[in-house]
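FIELD: query
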Amino acid sequence: MSLEVGSPAPEFTLPCSTGSDVSLASLRGHKVVLWFYPKDNTPGCTTEACAFRDLQTEFGSLGAVTYGVSRDSIRSHGNFITKHSLGLPLLSDPELEAQNAFGVWVEKRNYGRTYMGTERSTFLIDEVGVVRRVWRKVRVKGHVDEVLAAVREL
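FIELD: result
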């Protein structure tokens, strides 16, 4: 499934590192940045998470909330947050509810091996739940700045 700009974002409810569940419906009225990443405590994912952490104030000043989403458990997220002083919310999606709905659980290839995994992707959703920007196969360097610029334009 390929989620297109202008389409309604899929609904989801996932456990959050803050201790409560988060649903897309509960975020209405806010710009939402969902950034899907493969795994806690890996180099690229850590770099991306730290970049989102470093710009949280700017996102917040624009009325935007950001949530990282991976298959990792809440416990893993807690360790990741503590180890890197992230201070930002991470959603746990072990059953692939959101990843399948957003089309980021995909076949991947690495060193001749084919497997299923999370495609690093980011979605910008407006205050009424419509997808306004999609970034797929994200390269981490400079990505969060690009997302912030898109939030400013929205």
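FIELD: remark
The beta strands are 13-15, 21-23, 31-36, 64-70, 90-92, 105-110, 113-118, 121-125, 131-135.
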